[in-house]
Each structure stands twice: as structure tokens, then as C-alpha cells.
Amino acid sequence: MAIQQTLILIKPDGLIKSLTGNVISRLSEAKLTIMGAKVVRVSRELAEKHYEHLKGKPFFEELINYIVGDVHKTYRVLALVYQGENAITKIRDIVGDTDPEKANPISIRGSYGRITTSGVFENVVHASSSPEDAEKEIKLWFQPEEIVEDIYPIKEATLNNVKKIVWA
Ligand code: IDP
Ligand code: MG
């Protein structure tokens, strides 16, 4: 079994429905370790990079409106990094299928998700799908100093004469 990292986002519907505590309790069943956590106001640029692989899908624009907070007028997501053995599959099992109607009813998405009339799946949380996606996503959402251990290689960079630690 491999030690993996995974990025979780509690999306704006999760925050406006006051599900943060429930979601974190459910995720704790996986017995993983939290490595980083923060509240983020999501820019369109960050949203489009995060969902790059879905560009061209009919629901893409609505998905971006959803994750930046325009749909729920809730301009924040809670971003979490978990680490542990088989973290990706363990978390995806607790989170459930992408489509809330197909998701196991006791999963997070099965319990709390819905399909809106605009067609986007409001499914409460994001969870990385593979180790490659997790690495890309964690490096996109977090700076090295925001993670309690160096989970990926880092390097020193100079930006406007200021030395900074960045992902290598
Ligand atoms: P995932 O979140 O389960 O990894 P992805 O295919 O990466 O699923 O899609 C990202 C997000 O886009 C989903 O969580 C959901 O909010 C939305 N989405 C994906 N597929 C559809 C669809 O067929 N209809 C509407 N929304 C979708
Ligand atoms: Mg995905």
C-alpha cells in the first residue's frame, strides 16, 4: 500500500448548507492525516485551471460559476490536504459517485448532493481522482509553507528580490 496525498474541497453548496462539520466527520472515518487546510476565495483563473480537463463540456461555464461561488453567492471553499495509505480510494469511497443520484446514499454526495435545473451536479465536495491529479491540484491550491511537511520537492526562488520557497 502506498502513502498518498489527496486534495479535498468543500464547495460553496457545502458551506452554505452548513455541512463543513459533517463532511470533516465523515472524512475522518478514513483515518488519514490532515496536512493543510484553508479557506479560499476562488478566482476564475484558479477555477479554470482546476477544471482544465473539462473545458468544452456543456456544463463547463456553470461549473466555473458554481466553484467560484456565483451560484450560491457564497464566495469561499474550504481546501484540505489529507495524507495516508491509499488516501485517494479511501476518500473517493466516502465521497461517492460524481452524480449525486448515482452515488451511494450513505456517501457524502449521496446524502447531500443534488442535480440543479441548470444541469450541474452540486455534489458538495471535490476529491482528487489519482496520485497525478492530487499532486497537480495540491500544488495549484497550496504553497509549500501552507503544508505541514514537504510532501513534494521544493526549491528556493527569488521573486521581486524576495526569496521564497516554491514547489520544485
Ligand atoms: P469528480 O468531481 O467526481 O472528480 P469530474 O468528472 O472531475 O468529477 O467533474 C468535476 C465536477 O464537474 C463534478 O464534481 C461535478 O460538479 C461537475 N460535473 C461532472 N460531470 C458532470 C455532468 O455530466 N453533468 C453536470 N455536472 C458534472
Ligand atoms: Mg475529477
Could you please describe the fold and organization of this structure?
The structure is a single chain. This protein is α+β, with helices and mostly antiparallel strands and 168 residues long. Helices cover 33% and strands 26% of the residues. It has 7 helices and 8 strands. It has helices at 12-16, 20-28, 44-50, 60-68, 87-95, 108-112, 131-141, and strands spanning 3-10, 33-40, 77-85, 114-115, 121-122, 125-127, 154-159, 162-167. The mean pLDDT is 97. Inosine-5'-diphosphate binds at residues 54, 59, 63, 98, 119-121, 123, 126, 129.
Keywords:
two-stranded antiparallel ribbon; 4-stranded antiparallel sheet; alpha+beta; globular; 7 helices; Alpha-Beta Plaits; binds inosine-5'-diphosphate
Counting structural domains, the number is: 1
Summarize the helix and strand pattern as letters. Answer: EHHEHHEHHEEEHEE
Q: What value does the average pLDDT take?
A: 97
CATH superfamily: Nucleoside diphosphate kinase-like domain
Chemical compounds bound to the protein:
inosine-5'-diphosphate, magnesium ion
Largest sheet: 4 strands, antiparallel
Side by side, the strands of the main sheet go: 2-3-1-6
Count every helix, treating DSSP H or I runs of 4 or more residues as helices: 7
Helix content: 25-40%
Please name the CATH architecture: 2-Layer Sandwich
Query: What is the CATH first-level class name?
Result: Alpha Beta
Coarse structural class: alpha+beta
CATH topological fold name:
Alpha-Beta Plaits
**What's the β-strand tally?**
8
Specify Rg, calculated over alpha carbons.
16 Å
Q: Note the beta-strand portion.
A: 25-35%
Quaternary status: single chain
Shape: globular
User: Distance between termini?
Assistant: 26 Å
Unreliable parts: none
